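Aim 2, interim progress. The first record below pairs a target sequence with its structure tokens.
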Amino acid sequence: MEPVLIVGLEQSRARNLVRCLSEEGFHADFAAGETQARLLMAARQYRVLICSAEECGGDRVLDWLAAEPSRVATILVAATSNGNYCKALARGAADVVSAAACDEELALRARKAADTAQLERLRSIWSEVECSACGGDPRDGRDEAMLQAMEAAAQAASHHEPVLLVGEPGSGRQTLARLIYSRSRGRLGAFVAVNCSLEPGAFDARLFGVGSSPEGAGVLEMAGDGAVFLNEVSAISPGAQLRLVEFFNGGFFHRVGQSRRIWSECRTLAATSANLPKLSQISKFRADLADRFLKCQIEVPPLRRRPRAVERLGRLFLELACQRLHRPPLSLEPDAVQALLEYSWPGNVTELEAVMFRAALLAEGSVRRKDLQIPRTGAPLEPGSAHARSWRDIERRAIEDALARHAGNRTHAARALGISLRKLQYRLRAYGLTRNGHPYPD
């Protein structure tokens, strides 16, 4: 079972929380305060830290953990809603949960935090594997297109100019952006991603902030001297494009509705699947902003142009899925490897990750071609197919399949999914799943 440390919560609640955490595969220890927590963490490597923000001081705990050689996923339990907790998220907290939340929800948040940390670990392994290939001979099993992207990323990490990552959605643009950020020297601030497809008002408030109160800070402030990743930058509204040009030219910006100038040292990394020069020619994107991004442009190749990476990444994602599902490691049968290599992967790395997660749910003993559920012809998947869906949709479909295979028996379905009956029951309620039109009894 994975170790988790509870710090500063009332003992009665901590005891109840321990039971819920055990259902999620955790073994919990309890510390009354920060001093005892330091002693326990010096003796044991914890996956998750659940800490009372009021008892221990959220900022102090994050400062302490930032100095630790290995970070732990930290969840702050806050008695009241406060804008400062948004800053806590930007400074590295995995989650901030209301003290009014039930213990079951807190345990699920701990599971999500642990899984996310593991995902980042494996993604960093993937990046390091790819990066270690830089300078090597592409003929020895490496991908020349990705080598060029990695070499460009290494150069981009040495300066502070905006970087544009051009490629299809799901091709690994954000992973490459994180790699540039992590290899930039002297950067201690956060890496914050922003979806540029938000409504103009929501995007401006998210990026630049709004109003004068501390709660209105945008990610340009919260990231400190870190990096802001603008996903699908071509979707930014004309007004926000002008604000970005002003920021790039002077390093200053102002919040929405305010005139006070704010200085920011964070660097900007952006991604797009559109042709910015063409958009600027037809006045759909500011030419001066496009010029700033195009000074440092990196092409991220789609997965279909990186056939040698498919098997390697598939095995990494399968390892991650098994750990998330608390399953023993699964091997890939030769027919499954052949299916991975034959398919064209229109959804790129994101689709491969989803396919391997679903295979880990369905496989028994080892992963075969039928567990992957991808076409033999390599034809693109339909837009509504299981592989194009979110993790939530995939999990719901897996639960439905397990219940169908076991004639609605929840105990057998939970065992097949590798989760507890209590967790399955919680998921049934969360997804509104019914049997013959009636909710499953508690």
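The second target in this work package is listed in the same format:
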Amino acid sequence: MALFELATNGIGVLSLSCPDGRFPSVAARHPPALRLERTIRDLFGLEAEGLTDIRPWLDHGGWGVRHPLGGRIDAIPERTPYPFLPAEGESLHQIPVGPVHAGIIEPGHFRFTANGETVVRLEERLGYVHKGVEGLMAGADIATAARLAGRISGDSTVAYAVAFARAVEAAAAVEVPTRAVHLRALMAELERLANHFGDIGAVCNDAAFALMQAHCGVLRERVLRAADACFGHRLMRDRVVPGGVAADLDEAGRGQLRDLLDRIRRRFPELVDLYDNTPSLQDRTVSTGVLAPALARHYAAGGHVGRASGRAFDARRTPGYPPYDGLRFDVPVLEAGDVNARVWIRIREVEQSLGLVDQLLADLPAGPLAVELPCMAGEGMALVEAFRGDVLVWLRLDPDGRVARCHLRDASWFQWPLLEAAIEGCIVADFPLCNKSFNCSYSGHDL
């Protein structure tokens, strides 16, 4: 268990031996740990004493074994109805949505209980894209594990690759060349820009304002094309590796990125004005899907979800990591906590990322791109800011330098439950809008 202490910006990691297959439930005192403990029960067979909800989470009854990463027990696949929590009251009805959705989207089931059009309760059922990541990581060599880490959640491939690489480098006690550190940050900011453009447009589209999605889609496409031209891949996948980076940026690439910044700075303010001055759009986003600041703090919500509800946390600054500790940028924060606030946080983060790319291009140091990693045992952890919040990677290397164990935690683990709270009291038709304003990762959560 990784613990963060705000007063000191310190992070501590606690490991507890469970010889009898049990441990004290953290969720019994701290509800955000609930789904993680249900997952531990599914994967490892460890029982959390005092856990108030023992329903399976990732295990949908189709694996053929129970707790595959612990003491494996053969099981006949048997899909039984999932026991959703009851809701009581007059004139309530349920609306099941998913796991298969219209359009290109990952699977997840949403069970609405509504009174007319008003949502009384939403309960999520996730785990449909469970990939067995922790099992695949165990015993893998560093290069294979790094490629897998970059595929946990495809829209955050750079962030996950940086987090995994930094965890390996911490375990191996190596220092990465300065040029590689700056190139990693440059790729991370391009990834952030592309995703924020996509999200701003998608939120507007779910409010029936497709024009914004079209224009934001153009900007997103320009970022992806520039990334491909500069680093050889639109998503910059496998360009960050433990020990450094696998792609350099030449002068032609620097020129393309400067042209990209100029285009965005000319076009994006017009789109911001369009968003801000369209009353029909504001009518859908303002005061919709409000997440209370107290709840955002309690669940340590990261990214735009937390910052739109008053939680000023950004892993680039707190606890911080190079090169951001030497760069100038602000962490935008709002208190309203509605869909509109989550859009505005994205807008302000676009502006901050443009400034960061400027600084990185102006002060890109010369030098090597990578260092060789020693073959040794060790334990390491890293916290990196992805576009939707903080990504944590913890790993342990065995004496042969292979991955003994690795856990990758997406910010979505603590954002999905908050979506359930934010939709209460809204009308059913506002769910796509609220859901997209959160934009939690299915794949990053389902491991």
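Residues 178-206 form the longest helix (29 residues). This observation will shape the mutagenesis plan for the next reporting period.
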